[in-house]
Write a structure and sequence with these properties.
467 residues, mainly alpha, Amino acid/polyamine transporter I, two-stranded antiparallel ribbon, 15 helices, 4 strands, 3% strand
Length: 467
């Protein structure tokens, strides 16, 4: 073999940025998106629609799916800059903001992004435990009746979930998670389908009748006027943030192979992922509201909107747990990479940071072990699990974090980068349209933040450590 051909073979292993050649496709990116977007919150959409009613509930679901897809397309064009096909790669969301907007804005982006990512991993730990407890309760109710005391503590199951995540967190790179995201996406289809099927069965029950209305819960009948306002705020937030996957969109795009151009593949993947998500969201929200009316529970699998068939409820909650195992990794991997890249830049000569050991694991294959990666990722999972255990009402806090990060990450930075990249004239129709979109989403974020704060205050009044 000649030197030239040897160099050509070796060079073919790497992309234009010197990294190992990416192998991601539209299918794997779509799976990552579905995994990131559809969380167990899909099953709380019946409650959200109940607060808003048929008209506003349906309209808000569609509105935020359109906004999310639109801003995802804007963001996908920022992966390479200045040219979306041949420009320099931006491996992370922060890199894109830094190269296009410059100044200090990438620091604000990083603060919003990584605060949200950390919050999501803690929230997923808690939510997975709630679903595991729901399986235990379901079997208890089936055996002893619906009035039985089947309460169980969440924190042992958070610890089990955390231990499992310690092992999965040792997967070195985001692009090696494709199989996990595909499994998680299948699980999300599974439990969403179970929720939809159980809703249809409940609607078809003989004598079934639940009060619904065009405007949701009726003030003075179902709810007080002040509670209606708070619940409406929270419902808007739930729907808006259920779609928010912008925090990992650039990282997902960084897994795609170069041909066809990454931004074109990402646009297709975003359309597929968000279309699938919207379809399931609409069915879960609308059919769930039809099934339960104004009495819709917060989550009709973990909140026991359904008791029977108990085995199907168990399967639905098991699917939620498996899905959250994958979703945790999709959101944690950018955090892992940030710290590891910083460590390698800070101490490039350190073997602790850079040296990798190939260890063969039976039935699994070769595992690339790095000591810093092993220590840091293990510590991160332990700390987030402990926070979830100590603050079991953390979902409301995560809602607040989501409210504060939705506007900058999903709308502000994508629209500002578009205006800068395309050199859009000030006060042109496109410029005005982008600014109006930003203002609207800022108002939604502020409203949702107020609702989340009120929820935190309410939960603090009944807080019991290790409950």
């Amino acid at each position: 073999m000649t030197v030239e051909s040897s160099f050509s073979i070796e060079n073919s292993k790497y992309d234009d940025d010197g990294r190992i050649k990416r192998t991601g496709t539209c299918m794997t990116a779509s799976a990552h998106i579905v995994t990131a977007v559809i969380g167990s919150g899909v099953l709380s959409l019946a409650w959200a629609v109940a607060q808003l009613g048929w008209i506003a509930g349906s309209a808000v679901l569609m509105l935020f799916s359109i906004i999310t897809y639109f801003t995802a397309c804007l963001l996908s064009d920022c992966y390479r800059y200045p040219d979306p096909v041949h420009g320099t790669r931006n491996h992370t969301y922060i890199d894109a903001v830094k190269s296009i907007l410059g100044g200090y804005q990438h620091k604000l982006c990083g603060l919003a992004q990584y605060t949200n990512l950390v919050g999501c991993t803690i929230g997923y730990t808690l939510t997975a435990a709630i679903s595991i407890v729901a399986i235990k309760k379901s079997n208890c109710f089936h055996k002893y009746g619906h009035e039985a005391d089947c309460d169980s503590a969440n924190y042992p199951y958070m610890a089990i979930f955390g231990i499992f995540q310690i092992f999965l967190s040792q997967i070195p790179d985001f692009h090696e998670l494709s199989w996990l995201s595909i499994v998680a996406a299948v699980m999300s289809f599974g439990y969403a389908s179970i929720g939809i099927s159980l809703s249809i069965a409940k609607i078809a029950e003989k004598g079934h009748h639940w009060e619904t209305s065009l405007t949701g819960l009726v003030v003075g009948v179902d709810i007080t006027s002040s509670k209606k306002v708070w619940n409406t705020f929270q419902a808007l937030g739930n729907i808006a943030f259920a779609y928010a996957f912008s925090i990992v969109i650039v990282e997902i795009q960084d897994t795609l192979k170069s041909s066809p151009p990454e931004h074109k593949t990402m646009r297709k993947a975003s359309l597929i992922g968000i279309s699938i998500t919207t379809f399931f969201y609409a069915l879960c929200g609308i059919l769930g509201y039809a099934a339960f009316g104004n009495d819709a529970p917060g989550n009709f699998l973990t909140g026991f909107g359904f008791y029977e068939p108990f085995w199907l409820v168990d399967i639905g909650n098991l699917f939620i747990v498996i899905h959250l195992v994958g979703a945790y990794q999709v959101f944690a991997q950018p955090i892992f990479s940030l710290m590891e890249n910083w460590g390698c830049e800070k101490w490039p000569q350190s073997k602790l940071m850079t040296k990798e050991y190939n260890i063969r694991i039976p039935l699994v294959g070769m595992w690339r072990m790095n000591m810093f990666r092993l220590i840091w990722r293990t510590l991160y999972v332990i700390i987030t699990t402990l926070i979830a255990i100590l603050l079991p009402f953390f979902n409301s806090i995560v809602g607040l974090i989501g409210a504060l990060s939705f506007f900058p990450l999903t709308v502000y930075f994508p629209t500002e980068m578009y205006l800068t990249r395309t050199k859009t004239p000030k006060y042109s129709s496109i410029w005005i349209g982008m600014k109006l979109l930003s203002v609207f989403c800022l108002i939604v974020s502020l409203v949702a933040a107020v609702g989340s704060i009120q929820g935190i205050i309410s939960e603090l009044t009944i807080y019991k450590p290790f409950g």
